[in-house]
Structures are given as C-alpha cells and as structure tokens.
Amino acid sequence: MKAGVVGAGLMGAEIALVLALAGHDVLLHDQSSEALHRAVERLRGILDKGVARQFYEAEAAEVALERIEPVQSIDAMADCAMVTEAVYESLDAKGAVLRALDEACRPECILASNTSTLPISTLAAFLASERRARFLGTHYFSPVSRMKLVEVVPGFATDPATVGEVVAMLEGIGKHPVRIRDVAGFAVNRMLHAMLIEAVRLVDEGVATPADLDTACRLGLGHPIGPFAMMDVVTSDLCLQVQGILHDAYGERFRPPALLKQRVAAGYGGGKGKPGWLNENG
C-alpha cells in the first residue's frame, strides 16, 4: 500500500515510520522543508537506538527510512491508498488539510485523522459528502513506535467496510485497534484528562508534590509513567488545549485547573529542553 501522512511533527513522523517498518511506501508531507529534515533525523535516531527492533524485524528497520519520501505538496498524495492527517489539534488547521486532500486524492482513497479530541463527524463536514464514507479517525498514541493502541473512530457517514479495511491495516502494522464511538475526546483522553486535572488539583491543594504523585501512580496504580512526567513530555500546553475542548463539550468536570493555566502562561509547559513540573530549569 502507498500511504501518506500530512504533518511531520512528533506524531505524524512516527506514524510514517511504523507504516514504513511494516513494508508500506510512505509520503510524509509538511509545508516546511526544515520540519521534514528534522523529522527524518528524529526517525533515524529512533532506528539507531534500536527502539523499533523491539516491535519490528531488524531488516525492516534498516530499510524503513528508504520507504519514506518527504514531500511539500499535498498534490503528491494523489495516488495514495490511504492518507492520515496529523497536524496541529485545531479545527481550522485540520479542516484546511482535509479540504486539500479531498481535492487531491482519488475517490477510493481512505482519509483518516489522528485527532485526539475533535469529533470525526465535525471534521467530516470539511469533506464533500461523497467522500465521508471513506473518512474516519485513527487516534495513535505517543510514542507511536512503541504504543500499540489505536482508537478507530467512525463518523456518522463512515462506511463499515472502511472501518474493516483500516482495522486490518492497523493489525498488519502491529497495532491493536479498538473501535470507539464518535464523541469529543473519544475514550482514552477522557479518562486520562480526568486524572490529570485531579493530579494538578492535588498539587494546588498541597496534598502531595508532583514527584510523589508520579511515584504513587507508578507504584500504587501500576502506571508506566506518572501524570506529571507525562505532561512534561507531551507538554502542559497541549494538555491545556485538550482540556479546553473537553470543557466546551462536557462542562465543569473538565474545567482546566487555574494552576495549569498559570504555568503554561508563565512558560512552564515542558517539552524538550523547557521547564516543566519535574524540572523547572528545563
């Protein structure tokens, strides 16, 4: 299968990688040549560290980068069998990409969104009505090269046959797809952010420190990573954005904590080399 991925950020680049590791030819799109270069170098680093060898054949890892072709034109996706949108979690940004893909891709091409919170049927409104049967959500989890789960989210108009094709493809690349009903935040993020919000409240109330709460989650709940370490990796900025979407959809139970807003505004959102909950010096 020839596949496409739009967005060469952390998620998009690794989605391209796991497709390539499974033997698919992949076009990785970004408007920025610098972003594409950084993505390829990051993927080379993942392969050099041997991370992917835990999940894929060593021989596949050696040739995976050769199967990924960086492109800067959406029109290059014209002959892809499936294209995954993995750009910034913004309705406007994703809508613009989907409109462009609708025009560029063949009618039989499957379009998928890696959105983590936006309802698929809302995004489907950016597509021509005849395209919507071939559109659905495929919500991967970070780091994509390690995490097996993918939430598969059909929209109102998604053809069941499309769901079946995508589930089979995901299983073929070593993922474990679970079908989720089309609601804001889907399933995992609703559970996750309920926990993150309460964790920040516990810190704000002086009940425990971020480091101690992380230890409690790892040793008491069996979580591989604590909530504050997770926020430092994915960034509190993104968590705040997601919680804003969930708050709009579900009300008070997902209101972002004031402390989280304050830290993001002050530049303590985490991310590579930036101050966060566990390392305030970056």
Sheet with the most strands, sense and barrel status:
8 strands, mixed
Structural class of the helices, strands and pairings? Answer: alpha/beta
| Mean model confidence by pLDDT | 94
Cα-to-Cα separation, first versus last residue? 42 Å
Jot down its keywords.
282 residues, alpha/beta, Rossmann fold, eight-stranded mixed β-sheet
Could you characterize what this model shows?
This protein is α/β, with parallel strands linked by helices. The chain has 2 domains: 2-179, NAD(P)-binding Rossmann-like Domain (Rossmann fold, 3-Layer(aba) Sandwich); 188-265, N-(1-d-carboxylethyl)-l-norvaline Dehydrogenase, domain 2 (Orthogonal Bundle). Helix content is 44%, strand content 13%. It contains 11 helices and 8 strands. The protein has helices spanning 10-21, 33-48, 58-63, 91-104, 120-124, 160-172, 188-204, 210-220, 227-234, 236-250, 258-265, and strands at 2-6, 25-29, 68-71, 82-85, 110-113, 135-140, 149-154, 176-179. It has an 8-stranded mixed β-sheet with strand order 3-2-1-4-5-6-7-8, sandwiched between helices.
